[in-house]
Input
Amino acid sequence: MSEDTISIARRLLQVLLPLGKSVTAELRHTGQLMAPGHYQTLGTLYLRTSNLSDLAEIQGVSLPTMSNTVTSLEQQGWVKRKRSEKDRRVVMVELTPAGCDKLGELTDTVLTMLVSLLNKTSSEERESLSTGISVLECIFDTISLPRDPD
Output
């Protein structure tokens, strides 16, 4: 592994961690989110129905913590638990239509924040950033966001 590659990886982490904190702070500031893990949980469930164990593993939290998160989201009407038809012992968690709407609202809020930040940069900087993001899209699996203009 070259020093250049290590340096790029370090710089990427130095941007991603504060970006995640900024997103969480914006969602809390607007009063749209009760806990940091809620946005990620809704996003995960937008992509696929999951069981509690998978959700906990994806977010790197304990099963009781994820159970509490799901209970909180369930009380808001954003997710629902459903027994697996294949194995009644397995409880799946799925996004409700209200949860999908909420995820769209949260995503709109985050996009507005990001656009505001990006508007402070020059067109050359935005073009450079766009090129870098294209590289990241080739490296990582990308997702469609709720309310994607596609």
Remarks:
- The domain at 3-139 is CATH 1.10.10.10 (Arc Repressor Mutant, subunit A).
- The chain is about 65% helix and 10% strand.
- Strands lie at 50-51, 79-83, 91-95.
- The radius of gyration is 18 Å.
